[in-house]
Design brief:
Helix 3 packs across helix 7 (195-206). The protein has helices spanning 48-57, 81-96, 107-115, 120-125, 143-150, 179-186, 195-206, and strands at residues 2-5, 15-18, 28-35, 61-65, 71-77, 102-106, 130-135, 156-160, 163-167, 190-194. By secondary structure, the protein is an alpha+beta fold. It has 2 domains: 28-106, SP0830-like domains (Alpha-Beta Plaits, 2-Layer Sandwich), CATH 3.30.70.1280; 111-206, Alpha-Beta Plaits (2-Layer Sandwich), CATH 3.30.70.
Length: 207
């Protein structure tokens, strides 16, 4: 933008000033959204078709759902993951009556989750026995130690960033290490996906 100014009062003597506009970042990037505690026993139910419509109505592109447990791949203009989470939480409650937490990760962050897996042997041997708990934020101080002390079975946990990796040697279904115990000790909410699902989402999001 160029603005013409007369600094002397003489219309024949003018100065030109160029004012740069701040560029708007309209870059669309692929993101992954996970919903907490839906379509499982005792929790809220939602059809994936309705969830996809919600994302499309909010202006997101390339919307795809994965399985029935609330996993959505979509493209969004550059924005912080926390801002996207707040937006999705508010709109899903307003439009669908669905009050739940959303956990958003970029494709780069998701790839790092896979690369950071501290249990590669367990993932290869029994991927359905390895769970990644995606956390809303970092645990409270001493939270991981408190969780380890609370474990009464053979489960093993490791925290990497905002992800808690949990090995269930005897399977997840009969384990006494519940989500409630994990969240109470870490002081933060999360949502879990087994390793098969983590890999499936990663492949579709990056493909």
């Amino acid at each position: 933008m160029i603005i013409t100014l007369s600094l002397t009062g003489n219309p024949d003597v003018v100065c030109y000033a160029r004012i740069a506009r701040t560029p708007t970042d309209n870059t669309m990037t692929t993101r992954i959204a996970l919903l907490r505690a839906i379509n499982v026993a005792g929790h809220q139910k939602i059809a994936m078709a309705d969830l996809r419509v919600l994302f499309e109505d909010l202006g997101f592109d390339d919307v795809r759902s994965v399985l029935q447990t609330g996993n959505v791949i979509f493209s969004a203009k550059s924005s912080s993951t926390s801002a996207l989470e707040r937006h999705l939480e508010a709109e899903s409650e307003k439009r669908l009556g669905l009050g739940t937490d959303f956990f958003v990760r970029s494709v780069k962050q998701w790839s790092q989750v896979i690369a950071d897996n501290p249990f590669p042997a367990e993932a290869e041997r029994a991927p359905s026995h390895l769970l990644v708990q995606f956390l809303k934020k970092s645990p409270v101080a001493g939270g991981v130690e408190a969780l380890q002390a609370a474990i009464r079975g053979p489960e093993i946990v490791r925290l990497v960033g905002k992800q808690l990796y949990v090995v269930f040697p005897d399977g997840i279904g009969d384990s006494k290490l519940t989500t409630k115990i994990v969240e109470r000790n870490l002081g933060v909410v999360g949502t879990g996906r087994n390793w098969n699902t983590v890999l499936k989402i990663g492949k579709l999001a990056s493909g």
